[in-house]
Amino acid sequence: MEISSAVQKYHKTMGTTQPIIGMVHVQALPGTPGYAGTMQAIIDAALRDADTLKRAGVDALLLENMHDLPYLRREVGHEVSSAMTVVAYLVKKAFGKPTGMQILAGANHAALAAGNAAGLDFIRAEGFVFGHLADEGWMDADAGPLLRYRKNIGAEGMLILTDIKKKHSAHAATADVSLRDTAHAAEFFRSNGVIVTGSATGQEASLVELAELHGHTKLPILVGSGITIANIGQYARHCDGFIVGSSIKRNGDWRLEVDYERAVGLVAALNR
């Protein structure tokens, strides 16, 4: 089957055809309710996780401000985006492989700006096509303004990988729009790749839906939740990459540090 230009660009950015993208959950940032330290402590924790993932052999990293509970909707303060820029710059420099960023919740413009300043390679964007009801409230789609912003700041080299039917969200308003149709809309609106998840963090994506989507979009397909040593082989048949957080953390808890043995085991399972 002919490889699309979107998939070719994704392969070139990631440096491989089916990357494992390890999550670095950045500690609570200044100004958020959970902030309890200094920027140096936040940086040190992120660098430790990045080093563990590098030694384990993952192909790429994704930084996310997941400890900034509760999240704001679309807009975050400069204290968050500037802190993420500093952390991302230092992590990318130390890691030396493709690195991306997501800023919750749906702060895609901030992620693009911070990622561009830090020299990152991609962002993960929620709410790209079709509105949905998130934990934080109703979230309108933002593909139009987001791609114009990427153009305006000269960040066209950064991929925008977009969640479809995103976890932690209600999709009753688009119940008559299938996962495949949502992917087609993302493709039409110039997404660089689609991310399929389960209903919540750590929950498995539907293999049936993933299999139906595989081969029906020209975009690369990533699985964004629920990947483990036990199931990665099943998902590998139907996707172009994996974003992994919970299962490679100590005790399988996303709030804890990366566990080297778990991460090594996941990489080995995919290689097998």
Structure description:
It contains 9 helices and 11 strands. The protein is globular and about 45 Å long. Helix 2 (39-56) runs parallel beside helix 3. The chain is 37% helix and 15% strand. The protein has 272 residues and is α/β, with parallel strands linked by helices. The mean pLDDT is 96. Strands 10-9-7-4-3-2-1-11 form an 8-stranded parallel beta sheet. A 3-stranded antiparallel beta sheet has the order 6-5-8, with no helix packed on it.
- Provide the residue-averaged pLDDT: 96
Tally of separate helices = 9
Tell me the span between the first and last alpha carbons.
Answer: 24 Å
Strand order of the largest sheet: 10-9-7-4-3-2-1-11
> What is the SS-derived class?
alpha/beta
Keywords summarizing the entry:
eight-stranded parallel β-sheet, 11 strands, alpha/beta, three-stranded antiparallel β-sheet, about 270 residues
What secondary-structure arrangement, pairings included, does this model have?
Elements: H1 5-14, E1 20-25, H2 39-56, E2 60-64, H3 78-95, E3 99-102, H4 108-118, E4 122-125, E5 132-134, E6 137-139, H5 143-152, E7 159-163, E8 169-170, H6 179-188, E9 193-196, H7 207-213, E10 221-223, H8 232-236, E11 242-244, H9 260-271
Parallel strand pairs: 1-2, 1-11, 2-3, 3-4, 4-7, 7-9, 9-10
Antiparallel strand pairs: 5-6, 5-8
Helix pairs in contact: 2-3, 2-9, 3-4
